[in-house]
User: Fold these one by one.
Assistant:
Number 1:
Amino acid sequence: MQSGIFDHIARLGVVPVIAIEQADQALALADALLEGGLPVAEITFRTGAAGDVIARLSEARPELITGAGTILTAANLQAAQAAGARFGLAPGYDPAITTAAARAGLPFAPGVMTPSELSLALGEGLSLFKFFPAGAAGGAAMLSAISAPFAHLSPVSSRPAVSALRQWGTG
């Protein structure tokens, strides 16, 4: 399940990150994404509407792969799962959150920025990560610099990803 949803998202190539203030705007946003051929959205817990937005999208637009972002607390994680999120992301690595996500069966990727954070998360048995904040951490240059010791992790060692980052001017 974990690799399946994230493999599908990876094939899409981009995930819109959305901080929406009003849940009543969610369906129009979902429709625009779907009409544009992008059936995925990360709804961040940076607003109080996140749980309601995820619930509305999960119920009314099940073809949209709706996930939860900015999961910082166990309460965020519980709200995301209760609302129907199909995946979760965090800006940092918190072993309590990753353990809770695993117990809940929610595909989850914590944020890591340094080789030390990556090593700690690998030690917990995790294998999928969000490189955050990518730009501030050196972008493609950082990924390239740490690719040798972490070559077994495809997001770190993927040359196409590094090339894409360079094209977008982040490397």
Number 2:
Amino acid sequence: MSDESGGDESGEKRLSDDGLILALAGAACLLAANTAYSRSQPDAVIVFAMLAAVPALAAVVADLATDYVPTIRIHLLLGASALVGAAFAVPGRHYANIATLAVAGLMGLGRVFEVEYRGKES
């Protein structure tokens, strides 16, 4: 639906760019936590994967339901927690979780780098 000024006023909620990054990385961390739990990997891998996933996915739900745009702190929490979880998976050679958590962590910290050092807000 278009109004008289030519703008699109459909009224539907859309996921922000930050929300998209958090959705993908949070889902990856949730899958890594599930894999770690089902394969009896160290508890630290499960804890840090969940610590990365839960706030990220909660921010995605808030982004979809309201006008909230996730802050950089959530990206930092996601990135740091996922990388610590990946580090705990290294001694056991759990390569799938190492890769999954490392990529999710780099997605979160990549956004922090973009905003803090490059100055790109959107």
Number 3:
Amino acid sequence: MSDRKKPVLKRMIRFPPAAEQNQISGNGPGKTGKRMFKPIKKVRVSETAAMQLEELIKDGTFAEGQPLPSERGLMKELQVGRGSIREALRILEIKGFIETRPGIGAFVKSHEGDIFSPLSTWLKDNNEALHHFFEVRSLLEPSTARMAAERISDEDLEALKKNLEEFGNTVAAGDLPRAILVDAEFHRLIGKATGNKVLSSIMDALYRTMIEGWKAPLKIPGQPHKSLAEHSEILDAIRAKDGAKASLLMNEHLSSALQALGDAGLRKH
């Protein structure tokens, strides 16, 4: 049956601008002194798209193993940009609902997801992949941080500052999937800040693959707050153009994450 006869995706809800949203609750507190309305939470377009796709996966509209529509198809159905679609798919991948096959597309992995599955079981299933992931990162990222500190532009520094602020907000809100997304983006942005296109493309590829490696540390209780503090220290060293300190802090950051995974049950390689 064609999409015209049986539309799979609902059209995206269009929210009013922030100014209009504020006017909606313009009456303010009632006679009792209590507010009549709760403030409207700002929702990203990508998160709205991800929630809609997640509902369709959960209710069986898309079967396990079935491909999702192409990026172009999702852009047309949801009437949003490519960037929002890619971020929505990334969120679903982090949650364990889909898997992305480079050059092919996104496929439904599970109707339930695995973001909140038991950590011990999850570490056992991904033991070798996690060790390989951290081996590569330990080779690349300390040198990447050093180079970024020596070469970073004002534009790239501003992007890292905004990322750190968003990471803090997501950690405070307890939004684990988005915290994982923003955490990985911090490391990708450091690669971009080196100005080395080859190194930047390697970090970009690392960012887009091995999702288990990015998910693992932040699934550990307390680790998101620890990672946030370590990101802040790394950024301070980069801002100060102290390459040696940035490299040292990045190495400690990765070693700390691997140690936390070991304490949580990751077997030695």
Number 4:
Amino acid sequence: MPNRCSEADIHTSIRSYAEVLILFYDHTEAEPENNVPQVIMILLELISLVPEIHEDAVLAVATYIDEYHMTPFDAFHAGLVATSGERVLSTEQDYDTVGLARVSLAPLEEDDCVVAPLG
């Protein structure tokens, strides 16, 4: 009897990959408990991501965790920004370290503030 899984179109979303990486992240040591790139490659071979562009984002996530020691949350933001060509809105300077375009949330100087009139 054939394996039902091999006949089905099995896929998941990027959220499931985020859950797995958070599960594998040791919060007390602030580092992953497993070889993240290897785990991601195995998962991508077993279960595809929809939409397909998210596969590139997840591969970028694995790189950011492995090479730059980012947390899973920061790595996911970075991976999505890197593969979409967008900018990230954040105070987190790790995004600068990996070369992403970042819009700072730092407080503006009083002279920089523009207040639109109401009404």
